[in-house]
Design goal:
2 domains, Cathepsin D, subunit A, domain 1, 6-stranded mixed barrel, mainly beta, about 40% strand
């Protein structure tokens, strides 16, 4: 049976849900150490007047920030509704939750969906099998009503786990993927595509504002853009491949030197990854620039060196997007801090590819435009 390796996930090619589990592995390790278990816009139009016209059509959904590691929001599934804490993930395309048929530790400590309690549940009978380098989720496919705030998505396909080792140390129960349908389980329609097809949202767009060091205030919005969350105009970037939210990067510079991406490279905007990931060699160069040393799973630096550390500058579609040390270094204890860079993407992507996770997305309000296959970025307020 053919195998696929996608972002650290080794998945069987029959009956699979493809979810990038590198992010889960990274987050699980970090959460364990911290003991946490748990055409809608046009640049030629005036943003203020457009915002007033569209404001009522925007569905805003609050997200909770867990220690700058993951952002979680609630949804309900079923009739009557069963509530779940979910990771809204631009790096995958499928929806899944633990089920009452799952008795592994990761399920017992999370909310489990019970299909017998829902009058709108329909069984597919199709198996779902996820195999990871660090775990597995096995289950089956079902259909039910999914509600995100006031947005109601009927007959939505989703996975119900029967065994999993995915969210054991995570503060979310399951994952709601917001990637392109080309990455979803074959024959199924992702949540956002169903919302578009059924006319539940007025515009084919969603956006993220991710707060820093605050539990509350983060938000995912559907059907429009609230410009009060960013400074200046949105700068639009074409999607280079309609699978992930993937864009072309012109260059990456640190301390006045090319860090990588000498002839251009690719980057994926991924709300489900907490860190900045890249190929091993340029990431090793970062570690040398900041004098980091390896301790356990982490790269450690003295906190007092942060003001002296250079920005990492990503040039995308001709615009510079700097990431300062205050963003890519995480505070620790006893005067030690941790690098948020991690290497190894060459194991999953044949071309030089970077994954711009929450470290980047906390700095830049991000808009995902499925109608025009583009991403909009602007500095956050």
């Amino acid at each position: 049976m053919k195998c696929l390796v996608i972002l650290g996930l080794v998945a069987l090619s029959e009956g699979l849900v493809i979810i990038p589990l590198t992010k889960v592995k990274i987050m699980r390790e970090t959460l364990r150490e911290k003991t946490v278990l748990t055409n809608f816009l046009d640049e030629n139009l005036d943003n203020t007047s457009q915002n007033a016209a569209q404001d009522l059509n925007i569905s805003r959904h609050p997200l909770r920030n867990y220690m700058d590691l993951v952002y979680v929001g609630n949804i309900t599934i079923g009739t009557p509704p069963q509530e779940f804490k979910m990771l809204f993930d631009t790096g995958s395309s499928d929806l899944w939750v633990p089920s009452v048929y799952c008795h592994s530790t990761a399920c017992r400590i999370h909310k489990r969906y019970d299909p017998h309690l829902s009058t709108t549940f329909r069984l597919s009978g199709r198996p779902v099998d996820l195999i990871f380098g660090s775990g597995r989720m096995v289950g089956f496919l079902g259909f039910d009503t999914v509600q995100i705030g006031k947005l109601v998505d009927v007959f939505q396909p989703f996975g119900l786990s029967e065994y999993q080792f995915v969210t054991e140390h995570s503060p979310f129960d399951g994952i709601l993927g917001l990637g392109y349908p080309s990455m979803a389980l074959q024959g199924t329609i992702p949540v956002f595509d169903n919302l578009m097809r059924r006319g539940v949202i007025s515009q084919p767009v969603f956006a993220f504002y991710l707060s820093t060091n605050k539990k509350n205030g983060s938000v995912v919005m559907f059907g429009g853009v609230d410009h009060s969350y960013h400074k200046g105009e949105l700068k639009w970037i074409p999607v280079s491949r309609t699978r992930f939210w993937q864009v072309t990067v012109n260059r990456i510079i640190m301390n006045g030197q090319f860090l990588g991406c000498f002839r251009g490279c690719q980057a994926i905007l991924d709300t489900g990854t907490s860190r900045l990931l890249g190929p091993t060699e340029p990431i090793d160069n970062v570690k040398r620039f900041i004098s980091a040393r390896h301790v356990g799973y982490e790269w450690v630096v003295p906190c007092y060196l942060i003001p002296r550390m250079p920005d990492v500058i990503f040039t995308i579609n001709g615009m510079d997007y700097p990431v300062p040390a205050q963003a890519y270094i995480r505070k620790g204890h006893r005067g030690l801090c941790f690098s948020s860079f991690q290497g190894g993407t060459e194991n999953w992507h044949p071309r030089e590819t970077w994954i711009l996770g929450d470290v980047f997305l906390r700095l830049y309000f991000s808009v995902y435009d499925r109608g025009n296959n583009r991403v909009g970025l602007a500095p956050t307020l």
